[in-house]
Write a structure and sequence with these properties.
By secondary structure, this protein is mainly α. It is built from three helices and no strands. Helix 2 runs antiparallel to helix 3.
């Protein structure tokens, strides 16, 4: 039963991308509301934007996301 539940809860690559972008969007919104305008807020928003840009540029899974590790 545990294996069946794990398969239904698994996210596809496309869904993972949208979940990650949504989390970054929420973090950006919280940053905008909680930090005072200035250098710190700008740096945090630029870093979050860089992560979002990186997520948008990666069309497929990473080679490190493989389920089986060679040599084991």
């Amino acid at each position: 039963m545990a294996g069946k539940a794990g398969r239904t809860m698994a996210l596809t690559d496309e869904k993972r991308k949208w979940v990650a972008l949504a989390v970054l969007g929420i973090l950006a919104l919280l940053t905008w509301q909680t930090l005072d305008p200035g250098r710190t807020r700008t740096v945090v928003l630029v870093v979050l934007g860089a992560f979002a840009f990186r997520i948008l540029l990666t069309p497929r899974r990473s080679r490190y996301d493989e389920k089986s590790i060679p040599g084991k």
